[in-house]
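User: Batch of two.

Assistant: Item 1 of 2:
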Amino acid sequence: PLPAGLSKGLEVLENEMRKDEDVIPIMVLVSDGRGNVPIWRDVREEVRAIAAKIREKGVHLVVVEGGGGFLNLGYGREIAEIAGGQYCDLGELNRGPFGAVKVAHAVGNLLE
Protein backbone atom coordinates (compact mmCIF):
# COMPACT_ATOMS: atom_id res chain seq x y z
CA PRO A 1 0.00 0.00 0.00
CA LEU A 2 1.41 3.34 -1.13
CA PRO A 3 0.44 5.55 1.85
CA ALA A 4 1.75 3.01 4.38
CA GLY A 5 5.02 2.58 2.47
CA LEU A 6 5.62 6.32 2.22
CA SER A 7 4.86 6.77 5.91
CA LYS A 8 7.20 3.97 6.94
CA GLY A 9 9.97 5.28 4.70
CA LEU A 10 9.62 8.74 6.19
CA GLU A 11 9.62 7.29 9.72
CA VAL A 12 12.86 5.38 9.05
CA LEU A 13 14.55 8.47 7.59
CA GLU A 14 13.40 10.68 10.47
CA ASN A 15 14.93 8.19 12.93
CA GLU A 16 18.22 8.27 11.02
CA MET A 17 18.20 12.08 10.92
CA ARG A 18 17.76 12.17 14.70
CA LYS A 19 20.70 9.79 15.18
CA ASP A 20 23.04 11.63 12.81
CA GLU A 21 22.56 15.31 11.96
CA ASP A 22 24.95 14.96 8.99
CA VAL A 23 22.86 12.32 7.24
CA ILE A 24 21.44 13.28 3.84
CA PRO A 25 17.94 11.78 3.73
CA ILE A 26 17.09 10.36 0.31
CA MET A 27 13.99 8.32 -0.43
CA VAL A 28 13.62 6.48 -3.73
CA LEU A 29 10.04 5.43 -4.37
CA VAL A 30 9.54 2.75 -7.01
CA SER A 31 5.83 2.35 -7.64
CA ASP A 32 3.21 1.38 -10.17
CA GLY A 33 1.57 4.71 -9.31
CA ARG A 34 -1.58 3.13 -7.93
CA GLY A 35 -2.30 3.92 -4.33
CA ASN A 36 -4.96 1.36 -3.61
CA VAL A 37 -5.17 0.85 0.15
CA PRO A 38 -5.81 3.87 2.37
CA ILE A 39 -4.57 4.18 5.93
CA TRP A 40 -7.62 6.28 6.86
CA ARG A 41 -10.18 7.00 4.14
CA ASP A 42 -8.99 8.80 0.98
CA VAL A 43 -5.85 7.40 -0.66
CA ARG A 44 -5.10 10.46 -2.78
CA GLU A 45 -5.42 12.88 0.13
CA GLU A 46 -3.24 10.64 2.30
CA VAL A 47 -0.56 10.50 -0.39
CA ARG A 48 -0.65 14.28 -0.79
CA ALA A 49 -0.36 14.84 2.97
CA ILE A 50 2.57 12.44 3.30
CA ALA A 51 4.33 14.01 0.29
CA ALA A 52 3.97 17.44 1.90
CA LYS A 53 5.44 16.07 5.13
CA ILE A 54 8.37 14.57 3.18
CA ARG A 55 9.13 18.05 1.83
CA GLU A 56 8.65 19.67 5.24
CA LYS A 57 11.12 17.25 6.86
CA GLY A 58 13.78 17.97 4.21
CA VAL A 59 13.79 14.49 2.71
CA HIS A 60 15.01 14.29 -0.89
CA LEU A 61 12.64 12.17 -2.99
CA VAL A 62 13.04 10.45 -6.34
CA VAL A 63 9.96 8.74 -7.73
CA VAL A 64 10.45 6.00 -10.33
CA GLU A 65 7.02 5.11 -11.64
CA GLY A 66 5.96 2.26 -13.89
CA GLY A 67 2.70 0.63 -14.77
CA GLY A 68 1.75 3.31 -17.34
CA GLY A 69 -1.20 3.07 -19.64
CA PHE A 70 -4.77 3.80 -18.69
CA LEU A 71 -4.32 2.26 -15.23
CA ASN A 72 -1.70 4.79 -14.17
CA LEU A 73 -3.40 7.17 -11.76
CA GLY A 74 -0.53 9.64 -11.83
CA TYR A 75 0.25 9.53 -8.12
CA GLY A 76 3.98 9.34 -8.80
CA ARG A 77 4.29 12.64 -10.61
CA GLU A 78 2.01 14.33 -8.08
CA ILE A 79 4.00 12.92 -5.14
CA ALA A 80 7.25 14.18 -6.66
CA GLU A 81 5.82 17.66 -7.28
CA ILE A 82 4.34 18.06 -3.80
CA ALA A 83 7.48 16.70 -2.12
CA GLY A 84 9.75 18.92 -4.23
CA GLY A 85 11.36 15.80 -5.64
CA GLN A 86 12.33 14.35 -8.99
CA TYR A 87 10.18 12.12 -11.21
CA CYS A 88 11.33 9.38 -13.57
CA ASP A 89 9.01 7.30 -15.76
CA LEU A 90 10.11 3.66 -15.87
CA GLY A 91 8.97 3.36 -19.49
CA GLU A 92 11.34 6.15 -20.50
CA LEU A 93 14.18 4.62 -18.50
CA ASN A 94 13.78 1.32 -20.35
CA ARG A 95 14.04 2.94 -23.79
CA GLY A 96 17.79 3.37 -23.75
CA PRO A 97 20.96 2.09 -22.19
CA PHE A 98 21.21 4.98 -19.73
CA GLY A 99 18.16 4.41 -17.51
CA ALA A 100 20.20 4.06 -14.33
CA VAL A 101 22.14 7.19 -15.25
CA LYS A 102 18.85 9.13 -15.45
CA VAL A 103 17.89 8.01 -11.93
CA ALA A 104 21.36 8.90 -10.62
CA HIS A 105 21.07 12.29 -12.32
CA ALA A 106 17.68 12.83 -10.63
CA VAL A 107 19.24 12.08 -7.23
CA GLY A 108 22.12 14.44 -8.02
CA ASN A 109 19.68 17.22 -8.93
CA LEU A 110 18.08 16.91 -5.51
CA LEU A 111 21.38 17.41 -3.75
CA GLU A 112 22.35 20.58 -5.60
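Item 2 of 2:
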Amino acid sequence: PSRTAILKIRNEVNVRVRVDHPNIARLIEIYEDEKQLALVLEYCPGGDLFSHLCDRGRFPEQTARVIVQQMLAVLCYLHAHDVVHRDLRLEKWVLATQHDGSGFPFLAGPVKLVDLGNATVWSNKSKKMDVACGALAYASPDMLVGRYTQACDLWSLGVIAYRLLSGHSPFHGRQQALVSQILSGAYTTNTFGWKGVSKEARDFVERLMDVDPVRRMTVNEALNHVWIASLESKNDVPLSLDFLTAVEKFARCSKLRRANLTMMAYSVTSEAAGGLDKLFFAFCKSPKATLGLDEFISAMKTQFPFLDIGQVVRLFQAMDSSCENEISYNDFLAVMLKPQLEKEEFLLLHTLRKWDADHSGFISLDDLRVLLGDRYSNDALEDMMHDCDINGDGHIDFDEFIEAVRNEDDFESDSRDGYADFLASPAAGRRVAIDKELKW
Protein backbone atom coordinates (compact mmCIF):
# COMPACT_ATOMS: atom_id res chain seq x y z
CA PRO A 1 0.00 0.00 0.00
CA SER A 2 1.02 3.63 -0.44
CA ARG A 3 2.42 5.55 2.50
CA THR A 4 -0.76 7.64 2.58
CA ALA A 5 -2.89 4.50 2.83
CA ILE A 6 -0.64 3.08 5.55
CA LEU A 7 -0.83 6.30 7.56
CA LYS A 8 -4.61 6.29 7.22
CA ILE A 9 -4.83 2.71 8.47
CA ARG A 10 -2.46 3.45 11.32
CA ASN A 11 -4.62 6.44 12.23
CA GLU A 12 -7.66 4.17 12.26
CA VAL A 13 -5.85 1.73 14.55
CA ASN A 14 -4.91 4.60 16.87
CA VAL A 15 -8.57 5.58 17.12
CA ARG A 16 -9.97 2.05 17.32
CA VAL A 17 -7.89 1.05 20.33
CA ARG A 18 -9.53 3.97 22.17
CA VAL A 19 -13.12 3.02 21.43
CA ASP A 20 -15.39 0.30 22.77
CA HIS A 21 -19.07 0.70 21.95
CA PRO A 22 -21.78 -1.81 20.92
CA ASN A 23 -22.58 0.24 17.81
CA ILE A 24 -19.00 0.41 16.52
CA ALA A 25 -17.76 -2.63 14.60
CA ARG A 26 -14.96 -4.30 16.52
CA LEU A 27 -11.38 -4.61 15.33
CA ILE A 28 -10.59 -8.33 15.45
CA GLU A 29 -7.16 -8.61 13.84
CA ILE A 30 -4.59 -6.95 11.61
CA TYR A 31 -2.79 -8.79 8.80
CA GLU A 32 0.13 -7.58 6.72
CA ASP A 33 2.19 -9.05 3.90
CA GLU A 34 4.43 -7.58 1.20
CA LYS A 35 1.49 -6.32 -0.85
CA GLN A 36 -1.30 -5.38 1.52
CA LEU A 37 -2.30 -4.35 4.99
CA ALA A 38 -5.75 -5.34 6.20
CA LEU A 39 -7.91 -4.64 9.22
CA VAL A 40 -10.28 -7.49 10.08
CA LEU A 41 -13.50 -6.19 11.60
CA GLU A 42 -16.39 -8.10 13.09
CA TYR A 43 -18.72 -9.61 10.50
CA CYS A 44 -21.90 -7.58 9.99
CA PRO A 45 -23.92 -9.44 7.32
CA GLY A 46 -26.88 -7.09 7.03
CA GLY A 47 -25.42 -4.75 4.41
CA ASP A 48 -24.81 -0.99 4.46
CA LEU A 49 -27.54 1.61 4.80
CA PHE A 50 -26.79 3.29 1.48
CA SER A 51 -27.52 0.04 -0.39
CA HIS A 52 -30.75 -0.43 1.54
CA LEU A 53 -31.81 3.14 0.80
CA CYS A 54 -31.13 2.62 -2.91
CA ASP A 55 -33.22 -0.56 -2.84
CA ARG A 56 -36.16 0.88 -0.92
CA GLY A 57 -36.29 4.56 -1.85
CA ARG A 58 -36.84 5.93 1.64
CA PHE A 59 -37.28 4.63 5.18
CA PRO A 60 -40.42 4.80 7.31
CA GLU A 61 -40.02 7.61 9.82
CA GLN A 62 -40.07 5.29 12.83
CA THR A 63 -37.31 3.15 11.33
CA ALA A 64 -35.22 6.22 10.50
CA ARG A 65 -35.72 7.54 14.01
CA VAL A 66 -34.46 4.34 15.65
CA ILE A 67 -31.43 4.28 13.35
CA VAL A 68 -30.57 7.93 13.98
CA GLN A 69 -30.91 7.40 17.73
CA GLN A 70 -28.24 4.68 17.55
CA MET A 71 -26.00 6.92 15.45
CA LEU A 72 -26.37 9.69 18.02
CA ALA A 73 -25.36 7.28 20.78
CA VAL A 74 -22.15 6.55 18.86
CA LEU A 75 -21.48 10.24 18.24
CA CYS A 76 -22.09 11.03 21.89
CA TYR A 77 -19.60 8.33 22.82
CA LEU A 78 -16.95 9.44 20.31
CA HIS A 79 -17.21 13.11 21.25
CA ALA A 80 -17.04 12.25 24.96
CA HIS A 81 -13.70 10.57 24.18
CA ASP A 82 -12.49 13.56 22.10
CA VAL A 83 -12.85 11.65 18.82
CA VAL A 84 -14.30 13.47 15.80
CA HIS A 85 -15.32 11.19 12.93
CA ARG A 86 -15.28 13.74 10.06
CA ASP A 87 -16.65 11.37 7.43
CA LEU A 88 -20.10 10.20 8.48
CA ARG A 89 -22.26 8.93 5.62
CA LEU A 90 -24.71 6.13 4.91
CA GLU A 91 -22.03 3.85 3.47
CA LYS A 92 -20.19 3.85 6.81
CA TRP A 93 -23.11 2.26 8.67
CA VAL A 94 -24.10 -1.39 8.37
CA LEU A 95 -26.72 -3.70 9.81
CA ALA A 96 -25.18 -6.03 12.36
CA THR A 97 -27.46 -8.96 11.56
CA GLN A 98 -28.85 -10.64 8.45
CA HIS A 99 -32.50 -10.19 7.53
CA ASP A 100 -34.96 -11.96 5.26
CA GLY A 101 -35.07 -9.20 2.64
CA SER A 102 -38.69 -8.25 3.24
CA GLY A 103 -40.01 -5.16 4.95
CA PHE A 104 -37.83 -3.10 7.24
CA PRO A 105 -35.93 -5.35 9.64
CA PHE A 106 -33.87 -2.55 11.17
CA LEU A 107 -35.77 -2.40 14.44
CA ALA A 108 -34.67 -5.95 15.28
CA GLY A 109 -30.91 -5.41 15.33
CA PRO A 110 -28.34 -2.64 15.76
CA VAL A 111 -26.58 -0.55 13.15
CA LYS A 112 -22.81 -0.31 13.41
CA LEU A 113 -20.21 2.23 12.35
CA VAL A 114 -17.53 0.39 10.37
CA ASP A 115 -15.05 2.99 9.15
CA LEU A 116 -12.94 5.32 11.30
CA GLY A 117 -10.28 6.09 8.71
CA ASN A 118 -10.74 9.87 8.79
CA ALA A 119 -11.48 10.10 12.50
CA THR A 120 -9.12 12.12 14.65
CA VAL A 121 -8.50 12.78 18.32
CA TRP A 122 -9.34 16.44 18.99
CA SER A 123 -8.18 17.18 22.52
CA ASN A 124 -7.04 20.78 22.05
CA LYS A 125 -10.43 22.49 21.86
CA SER A 126 -8.85 25.93 21.54
CA LYS A 127 -7.53 25.02 18.09
CA LYS A 128 -10.04 24.32 15.34
CA MET A 129 -9.43 21.62 12.75
CA ASP A 130 -8.61 22.72 9.21
CA VAL A 131 -8.19 19.58 7.06
CA ALA A 132 -11.20 18.88 4.83
CA CYS A 133 -11.93 15.18 4.43
CA GLY A 134 -14.72 12.75 3.66
CA ALA A 135 -17.48 12.97 1.05
CA LEU A 136 -18.44 16.43 -0.18
CA ALA A 137 -22.17 15.68 -0.14
CA TYR A 138 -21.99 15.20 3.65
CA ALA A 139 -19.40 17.88 4.46
CA SER A 140 -20.42 20.77 6.70
CA PRO A 141 -20.03 24.42 5.64
CA ASP A 142 -17.49 25.01 8.42
CA MET A 143 -15.37 22.09 7.19
CA LEU A 144 -15.38 23.53 3.67
CA VAL A 145 -14.29 26.91 5.05
CA GLY A 146 -11.43 25.18 6.86
CA ARG A 147 -12.20 26.05 10.49
CA TYR A 148 -14.36 23.44 12.15
CA THR A 149 -15.05 21.54 15.36
CA GLN A 150 -16.86 18.33 16.27
CA ALA A 151 -20.04 20.11 15.12
CA CYS A 152 -19.13 18.90 11.61
CA ASP A 153 -20.33 15.42 12.62
CA LEU A 154 -23.77 16.76 13.55
CA TRP A 155 -24.20 18.34 10.12
CA SER A 156 -23.26 15.04 8.48
CA LEU A 157 -25.77 13.23 10.67
CA GLY A 158 -28.38 15.76 9.58
CA VAL A 159 -27.65 14.89 5.94
CA ILE A 160 -28.00 11.19 6.79
CA ALA A 161 -31.35 11.79 8.50
CA TYR A 162 -32.48 13.92 5.54
CA ARG A 163 -31.72 11.10 3.11
CA LEU A 164 -33.32 8.39 5.24
CA LEU A 165 -36.54 10.38 5.62
CA SER A 166 -36.89 11.79 2.10
CA GLY A 167 -35.05 9.24 -0.03
CA HIS A 168 -32.86 11.83 -1.75
CA SER A 169 -29.90 14.10 -1.12
CA PRO A 170 -30.41 17.68 0.12
CA PHE A 171 -27.88 19.01 -2.42
CA HIS A 172 -27.45 18.35 -6.15
CA GLY A 173 -25.13 19.15 -9.02
CA ARG A 174 -21.43 19.11 -9.73
CA GLN A 175 -18.71 20.01 -7.26
CA GLN A 176 -18.93 23.80 -7.45
CA ALA A 177 -22.71 23.73 -7.30
CA LEU A 178 -22.60 21.44 -4.27
CA VAL A 179 -20.11 23.68 -2.48
CA SER A 180 -22.25 26.75 -3.14
CA GLN A 181 -25.44 25.04 -1.91
CA ILE A 182 -23.77 23.67 1.22
CA LEU A 183 -22.18 27.00 2.16
CA SER A 184 -25.51 28.79 1.83
CA GLY A 185 -27.61 25.99 3.32
CA ALA A 186 -29.72 25.84 0.17
CA TYR A 187 -31.91 22.82 0.92
CA THR A 188 -35.59 22.34 1.68
CA THR A 189 -37.75 19.93 3.67
CA ASN A 190 -40.88 20.78 1.70
CA THR A 191 -40.40 18.64 -1.40
CA PHE A 192 -42.63 15.72 -2.38
CA GLY A 193 -40.23 13.29 -0.73
CA TRP A 194 -41.05 14.82 2.66
CA LYS A 195 -44.77 14.15 2.34
CA GLY A 196 -46.04 12.47 5.50
CA VAL A 197 -42.90 13.23 7.54
CA SER A 198 -43.67 14.80 10.92
CA LYS A 199 -42.85 18.40 11.76
CA GLU A 200 -40.68 17.12 14.64
CA ALA A 201 -38.52 15.16 12.19
CA ARG A 202 -38.19 18.18 9.90
CA ASP A 203 -37.22 20.40 12.81
CA PHE A 204 -34.64 17.84 13.92
CA VAL A 205 -32.99 17.82 10.49
CA GLU A 206 -33.10 21.61 10.12
CA ARG A 207 -31.48 22.16 13.52
CA LEU A 208 -28.67 19.77 12.62
CA MET A 209 -28.19 21.29 9.18
CA ASP A 210 -27.76 24.84 10.45
CA VAL A 211 -25.02 26.61 8.50
CA ASP A 212 -23.83 28.28 11.70
CA PRO A 213 -22.02 25.63 13.80
CA VAL A 214 -22.69 27.65 16.96
CA ARG A 215 -26.45 27.41 16.43
CA ARG A 216 -26.28 23.82 15.26
CA MET A 217 -27.50 21.27 17.79
CA THR A 218 -24.87 19.55 19.89
CA VAL A 219 -25.04 15.79 20.25
CA ASN A 220 -26.66 16.10 23.68
CA GLU A 221 -29.24 18.56 22.37
CA ALA A 222 -29.99 16.18 19.51
CA LEU A 223 -30.48 13.28 21.93
CA ASN A 224 -32.89 15.43 23.93
CA HIS A 225 -34.81 16.66 20.87
CA VAL A 226 -38.44 15.57 21.05
CA TRP A 227 -38.11 13.47 17.88
CA ILE A 228 -35.46 11.29 19.55
CA ALA A 229 -36.29 11.65 23.24
CA SER A 230 -39.87 10.47 22.71
CA LEU A 231 -38.65 7.02 21.66
CA GLU A 232 -39.37 4.38 24.27
CA SER A 233 -36.26 3.20 26.06
CA LYS A 234 -35.63 -0.52 25.71
CA ASN A 235 -32.69 -0.51 28.08
CA ASP A 236 -34.62 -0.82 31.33
CA VAL A 237 -33.62 -4.44 31.85
CA PRO A 238 -33.50 -5.55 35.49
CA LEU A 239 -30.33 -7.17 36.78
CA SER A 240 -30.86 -10.77 37.83
CA LEU A 241 -29.13 -13.10 40.24
CA ASP A 242 -27.54 -14.70 37.17
CA PHE A 243 -25.70 -11.42 36.62
CA LEU A 244 -24.49 -11.35 40.21
CA THR A 245 -23.35 -14.97 39.98
CA ALA A 246 -21.43 -14.25 36.77
CA VAL A 247 -19.64 -11.28 38.34
CA GLU A 248 -18.75 -13.24 41.46
CA LYS A 249 -17.31 -16.13 39.44
CA PHE A 250 -15.29 -13.73 37.32
CA ALA A 251 -13.97 -11.92 40.39
CA ARG A 252 -12.71 -15.16 41.91
CA CYS A 253 -10.55 -15.99 38.88
CA SER A 254 -6.82 -15.37 38.80
CA LYS A 255 -5.42 -12.16 37.36
CA LEU A 256 -4.11 -13.98 34.30
CA ARG A 257 -7.42 -15.67 33.64
CA ARG A 258 -9.40 -12.45 33.98
CA ALA A 259 -7.01 -10.58 31.72
CA ASN A 260 -7.24 -13.39 29.16
CA LEU A 261 -11.04 -13.34 29.20
CA THR A 262 -11.04 -9.60 28.70
CA MET A 263 -8.69 -9.95 25.75
CA MET A 264 -10.84 -12.72 24.25
CA ALA A 265 -13.94 -10.58 24.58
CA TYR A 266 -12.61 -8.15 21.96
CA SER A 267 -13.51 -10.79 19.36
CA VAL A 268 -17.16 -11.04 20.41
CA THR A 269 -19.61 -10.05 17.66
CA SER A 270 -23.12 -8.64 18.03
CA GLU A 271 -24.62 -12.03 17.29
CA ALA A 272 -22.56 -13.69 20.02
CA ALA A 273 -23.29 -10.90 22.49
CA GLY A 274 -27.03 -11.31 22.04
CA GLY A 275 -28.87 -8.70 24.09
CA LEU A 276 -26.00 -7.94 26.45
CA ASP A 277 -25.70 -4.41 25.09
CA LYS A 278 -29.20 -3.67 26.43
CA LEU A 279 -28.27 -5.14 29.80
CA PHE A 280 -25.10 -3.05 29.90
CA PHE A 281 -26.95 0.16 29.12
CA ALA A 282 -29.66 -0.71 31.63
CA PHE A 283 -27.40 0.71 34.30
CA CYS A 284 -24.76 2.59 32.31
CA LYS A 285 -26.01 6.10 31.57
CA SER A 286 -22.68 7.84 30.93
CA PRO A 287 -22.12 9.32 27.45
CA LYS A 288 -18.69 7.67 27.57
CA ALA A 289 -20.45 4.27 27.64
CA THR A 290 -18.47 3.32 30.72
CA LEU A 291 -19.79 2.47 34.16
CA GLY A 292 -18.32 4.42 37.06
CA LEU A 293 -18.02 3.19 40.64
CA ASP A 294 -20.86 5.34 42.03
CA GLU A 295 -23.21 4.25 39.24
CA PHE A 296 -22.24 0.60 39.76
CA ILE A 297 -22.79 0.80 43.53
CA SER A 298 -26.19 2.46 43.06
CA ALA A 299 -27.38 -0.17 40.57
CA MET A 300 -26.06 -3.12 42.55
CA LYS A 301 -27.44 -1.92 45.88
CA THR A 302 -30.83 -1.27 44.28
CA GLN A 303 -31.02 -4.74 42.74
CA PHE A 304 -29.13 -6.64 45.45
CA PRO A 305 -29.65 -4.83 48.78
CA PHE A 306 -28.11 -7.73 50.72
CA LEU A 307 -24.63 -6.83 49.39
CA ASP A 308 -22.49 -4.53 51.52
CA ILE A 309 -20.51 -1.68 49.98
CA GLY A 310 -17.21 -3.49 50.40
CA GLN A 311 -18.44 -6.47 48.38
CA VAL A 312 -19.73 -4.22 45.60
CA VAL A 313 -16.44 -2.31 45.42
CA ARG A 314 -14.44 -5.54 45.16
CA LEU A 315 -16.69 -6.76 42.34
CA PHE A 316 -16.23 -3.45 40.55
CA GLN A 317 -12.44 -3.62 40.91
CA ALA A 318 -12.37 -7.12 39.47
CA MET A 319 -14.29 -5.97 36.37
CA ASP A 320 -12.30 -2.75 35.87
CA SER A 321 -9.67 -3.85 33.35
CA SER A 322 -8.24 -0.37 32.74
CA CYS A 323 -7.74 0.45 36.43
CA GLU A 324 -9.28 3.85 35.68
CA ASN A 325 -12.32 3.37 37.92
CA GLU A 326 -14.65 2.52 35.06
CA ILE A 327 -16.10 -0.61 33.51
CA SER A 328 -16.21 -0.73 29.72
CA TYR A 329 -18.58 -2.66 27.48
CA ASN A 330 -15.79 -5.13 26.74
CA ASP A 331 -15.21 -5.68 30.47
CA PHE A 332 -18.90 -6.46 30.75
CA LEU A 333 -18.78 -8.96 27.87
CA ALA A 334 -15.81 -10.74 29.43
CA VAL A 335 -17.81 -11.29 32.61
CA MET A 336 -21.10 -12.32 31.06
CA LEU A 337 -19.68 -14.56 28.32
CA LYS A 338 -17.00 -16.27 30.42
CA PRO A 339 -18.39 -19.84 30.02
CA GLN A 340 -18.79 -19.48 26.25
CA LEU A 341 -15.41 -17.82 25.71
CA GLU A 342 -13.50 -20.51 27.55
CA LYS A 343 -14.98 -23.21 25.30
CA GLU A 344 -13.71 -21.56 22.12
CA GLU A 345 -10.55 -23.48 21.19
CA PHE A 346 -9.69 -21.28 18.23
CA LEU A 347 -10.18 -18.10 20.23
CA LEU A 348 -7.99 -19.44 23.03
CA LEU A 349 -5.22 -20.18 20.53
CA HIS A 350 -5.66 -16.77 18.95
CA THR A 351 -5.39 -15.05 22.33
CA LEU A 352 -2.37 -17.12 23.34
CA ARG A 353 -0.59 -15.65 20.33
CA LYS A 354 -1.32 -12.19 21.72
CA TRP A 355 0.23 -13.12 25.05
CA ASP A 356 3.29 -14.50 23.28
CA ALA A 357 4.61 -11.02 22.52
CA ASP A 358 8.01 -12.17 21.21
CA HIS A 359 6.54 -15.07 19.16
CA SER A 360 8.68 -17.65 20.95
CA GLY A 361 5.92 -20.25 21.22
CA PHE A 362 5.37 -19.77 24.94
CA ILE A 363 4.67 -17.01 27.46
CA SER A 364 7.75 -15.73 29.25
CA LEU A 365 8.11 -13.39 32.18
CA ASP A 366 9.13 -10.70 29.69
CA ASP A 367 5.85 -11.26 27.82
CA LEU A 368 3.95 -10.71 31.06
CA ARG A 369 5.95 -7.54 31.65
CA VAL A 370 5.04 -6.26 28.17
CA LEU A 371 1.31 -6.81 28.67
CA LEU A 372 0.87 -6.36 32.41
CA GLY A 373 3.95 -4.55 33.66
CA ASP A 374 2.29 -1.16 33.83
CA ARG A 375 -0.11 -2.47 36.48
CA TYR A 376 1.79 -5.09 38.46
CA SER A 377 5.10 -5.07 40.26
CA ASN A 378 7.82 -7.42 39.11
CA ASP A 379 7.30 -9.53 42.24
CA ALA A 380 3.59 -9.89 41.43
CA LEU A 381 4.39 -10.94 37.87
CA GLU A 382 6.92 -13.48 39.11
CA ASP A 383 4.26 -14.89 41.45
CA MET A 384 1.87 -15.11 38.50
CA MET A 385 4.49 -16.96 36.47
CA HIS A 386 5.22 -19.30 39.38
CA ASP A 387 1.52 -20.12 39.82
CA CYS A 388 1.08 -21.00 36.13
CA ASP A 389 4.46 -22.60 35.38
CA ILE A 390 3.57 -26.12 36.51
CA ASN A 391 6.75 -27.87 35.32
CA GLY A 392 9.02 -25.10 36.59
CA ASP A 393 10.87 -24.50 33.30
CA GLY A 394 10.57 -20.72 33.57
CA HIS A 395 7.79 -20.13 31.05
CA ILE A 396 4.13 -20.93 30.40
CA ASP A 397 3.61 -23.41 27.57
CA PHE A 398 0.35 -24.18 25.78
CA ASP A 399 -0.86 -26.86 28.21
CA GLU A 400 -0.04 -24.71 31.22
CA PHE A 401 -1.80 -21.75 29.64
CA ILE A 402 -4.96 -23.77 29.01
CA GLU A 403 -4.83 -25.11 32.57
CA ALA A 404 -4.46 -21.58 33.95
CA VAL A 405 -7.29 -20.01 31.98
CA ARG A 406 -9.77 -22.88 32.25
CA ASN A 407 -9.24 -24.46 35.66
CA GLU A 408 -12.24 -23.54 37.81
CA ASP A 409 -10.08 -23.86 40.94
CA ASP A 410 -7.57 -21.35 39.59
CA PHE A 411 -8.29 -18.81 42.32
CA GLU A 412 -5.70 -16.63 43.92
CA SER A 413 -5.03 -16.87 47.64
CA ASP A 414 -6.23 -13.32 48.22
CA SER A 415 -9.52 -14.19 46.50
CA ARG A 416 -10.58 -16.92 48.89
CA ASP A 417 -11.64 -14.46 51.58
CA GLY A 418 -13.04 -11.88 49.19
CA TYR A 419 -12.20 -10.94 45.64
CA ALA A 420 -8.95 -10.53 43.76
CA ASP A 421 -7.26 -7.25 43.00
CA PHE A 422 -8.34 -5.62 39.80
CA LEU A 423 -6.67 -6.96 36.69
CA ALA A 424 -4.18 -5.13 34.57
CA SER A 425 -4.96 -3.28 31.39
CA PRO A 426 -5.64 -5.77 28.59
CA ALA A 427 -6.56 -2.82 26.40
CA ALA A 428 -2.94 -1.69 26.64
CA GLY A 429 -1.84 -5.26 26.00
CA ARG A 430 -4.10 -5.42 22.98
CA ARG A 431 -2.47 -2.26 21.66
CA VAL A 432 1.04 -3.66 22.16
CA ALA A 433 0.06 -6.86 20.37
CA ILE A 434 -1.36 -4.89 17.47
CA ASP A 435 1.69 -2.64 17.20
CA LYS A 436 4.02 -5.63 17.16
CA GLU A 437 2.19 -7.04 14.14
CA LEU A 438 2.48 -3.82 12.14
CA LYS A 439 5.86 -3.50 10.42
CA TRP A 440 5.78 0.17 9.49
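Residues 3-229 form a domain with the Transferase(Phosphotransferase); domain 1 fold (CATH 1.10.510.10).
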